[in-house]
Design brief:
This protein is an alpha+beta fold and 596 residues long. The protein has 23 helices and 6 strands. A 6-stranded antiparallel β-barrel has the order 1-2-5-4-3-6.
């Protein structure tokens, strides 16, 4: 009865629409799910390497999942074949880990596949399918925020449920979803271990720090952030510390600090040489960099990229090497998300192998009379020599995760087009205010690692630090990025500097002290008068955070702005209007001001 009531609420409540594309940047709120709608979806599919064949595979995968959902909303990994015709039962229900309750997690993973294709509980032919599953999921949540507190797969269940609810809320702004999302994110934050990771259960004392579990939690935090629900900054920083600690200089990422505790044996601390490694875990490490908003051109990231490209998706390799556990559909899923965020030639190479392998792997049985078999559109979960996780998750799991993988082209905006991650300038600046001046160096270290579009405003904040050494280092780092905003502090630092650092300061000053002519270089493209913000495009020139600009109409100054967003790949930015002589309008030119 409770689930039915929730379903009615979901279907009948009034929703708040998402902000429009044109206004998203004014609210400092990139929408990573924007490409799931019809027009944007078609464009993204073409731009990022999808095809009619991948879309057909997605549609067939969703149709199979919808046909195997129970009436109470559950996708049952152990008994989904009960929904098949007597004379055409789908094979490969789950065979292992049957004592572990994974219904919420598997059902949420299947729900993610529908959401990833742009369907919601409010619209589209799968509205009823999604209404049922969210009715079920929401009814499982307890007061702590967990959806499966008695399960030995608790954090898997909770994190995947959090992702599904986050995406549904971000896509619909359905009010009934917000409080459960806030509760589960709070619950996950409380379950974080001292080492920064998570274990399979909420027990924070195990100190096991399972990277695969932590990667699902990371995705949950990232998805919740897109929906406007934030985890504490300290939680994010500690999670980054886990990935840093678990990543070796050669790029490999280890699975966990300890063996798994069971009823028969206690957990055992592993030495580094005894810890498990594999392409799927390496992929979570590279994905984590993008999710946090870190630079993707650092040496460790480049080594991870090479490791993944040396082990492309391949069905022959799946059969030959899956006994090692790590060459499997899970590895393809995380590898796809990681490589998509890198883009360029690495993504094209990965995507070519991905499409060939996953499309050929999908089952499409047809009788002699042309009738489709009931497993048509699904993916096999295991075979003679492969499928350890498929034996645990069954055909529901394999079909959901392969469908999600083939939706990559539009599920999210890639990080190189939207580089702000979980550690954005607002969050880090807020965290900075909680620190003593002698602790500001930790934020400086982080800012250097962040993508310049994110790290730059943090470095500007550090120019005001009472810690003189931090101020100097922040100015030098800004100069390395080319920002003229570093020049005043560099000159002040040189006056007080010792001889051993003066040469470094002179080089930094020379880098940014180039005379800047007042030349037009761009055009205003969007205006939000209420927010006093405008968007502009550049014609080859570079601008930097905090830089003042004049807005011109012919020879007349019609206003001044100060840059507070910089979208490097698009050669465009945004600025807050500081003064306005006349109303600024679309088409007005932008002129730089010389920085003294």
């Amino acid at each position: 009865m409770l689930a039915r009531n929730i379903a009615v609420l979901i279907c009948l409540s009034v929703t708040t629409p998402m902000p429009s594309t044109a206004l998203a940047w004014t609210q400092n709120d990139d929408n990573p799910l924007i490409n799931r709608t019809d027009a944007e979806k078609a464009a993204a599919l073409k731009q990022f390497g999808g095809s009619d064949e991948t879309e057909r595979a997605v549609a067939e995968g969703l149709a199979w999942l919808a046909a195997h959902q129970r009436s109470d909303g559950v996708w049952d990994r152990r008994g989904f074949d009960q929904l098949c015709p007597e004379d055409d039962r789908c094979s490969q229900t789950a065979l292992t880990q049957l004592d572990r309750d994974a219904d919420v997690g598997v059902s949420a993973l299947a729900a993610m596949a529908f959401l990833g294709a742009g369907f919601t509980h409010e619209s589209g032919k799968y509205a009823e399918t999604l209404s049922r599953v969210f009715s079920y999921i929401l009814a499982q949540q307890n007061v702590s925020g967990s959806f499966a507190s008695d399960s030995s797969y608790q954090i898997y269940n909770d994190s995947v449920a959090a992702i599904a609810i986050s995406e549904a809320y971000a896509m619909t702004r359905e009010p009934i979803l917000k409080e459960p999302l806030e509760r589960v994110i709070g619950h996950l934050a409380r379950c974080q271990q001292a080492g920064g990771g998570w274990d399979l259960t909420a027990d924070t004392s195990t100190n096991r720090n399972d990277t695969t579990v932590s990667a699902w939690v990371l995705m949950a935090l990232k998805s919740a952030e897109a929906a406007g629900v934030s985890a504490p900054v300290e939680t994010r920083l500690r999670l980054l510390a886990h990935f840093d600690r678990a990543t070796l200089p050669d790029g490999r990422v280890w699975h966990s600090d300890k063996t798994e505790r069971t009823a028969r044996r206690p957990a055992v601390l592993l030495g580094v040489s005894d810890r498990r490694f594999g392409p799927g875990i390496t992929a979570t490490g590279l994905y984590a960099r993008a999710a946090f908003g870190l630079r993707m051109d650092e040496p460790v990231a480049e080594r991870q990229l090479k490791l993944l490209l040396s082990d492309l998706p391949d069905f022959v390799e799946l059969n030959r090497r899956e006994s090692t556990v790590w060459h499997n559909e899970y590895a393809w899923y995380y590898g796809t998300m990681a490589m998509f965020n890198v883009g360029g030639e690495p993504w094209r190479e990965w995507n070519a192998a991905l499409r060939r392998t996953v499309l050929e792997h999908q089952e499409r049985p047809v009788s002699r009379k042309g009738k489709r078999g009931h497993r048509y559109g699904s993916w096999p979960a295991f075979g003679k020599e492969w499928g350890r996780w498929g034996r645990s998750g069954g055909r529901i799991y394999s079909t959901a995760i392969n469908t999600l993988t083939l939706e990559i082209y539009y599920r999210h905006v890639p990080a190189y087009l939207s580089p702000r991650g979980l550690l954005g300038p607002i969050e880090v600046r807020t965290y900075l205010k909680t620190l003593l001046p002698n602790e500001h160096g930790t934020v400086l270290t982080l800012a250097r690692r962040l993508h310049p579009d994110t790290g730059e405003p943090i470095l500007l904040e550090l120019l005001e630090s009472p810690n003189l050494d931090v101020r100097t280092r922040a100015a030098i780092t800004l100069a390395e990025l080319g920002s003229p905003m570093a020049l005043p502090e560099l000159r002040r630092a040189r006056q007080r500097a010792s001889e051993d650092i003066r040469a470094e300061l002179d080089a930094a000053i020379a880098r940014v002290a180039v005379p800047r002519k007042r030349t037009t270089f761009g055009r205003v493209t969007e205006i939000n008068s209420q927010a006093r913000m405008l968007l502009f495009e550049m014609d080859g020139a570079s601008v930097y955070y905090g830089q003042p600009l004049r807005v011109m109409r012919g020879d007349d100054v019609v206003g001044t702005i100060r840059v507070n967003r910089r979208f490097t790949p698009q050669r465009s930015g945004a600025g807050r209007i500081e003064s306005e002589a006349l109303p600024i309008r679309i088409g007005d030119l932008v002129m730089t001001l010389e920085i003294q």
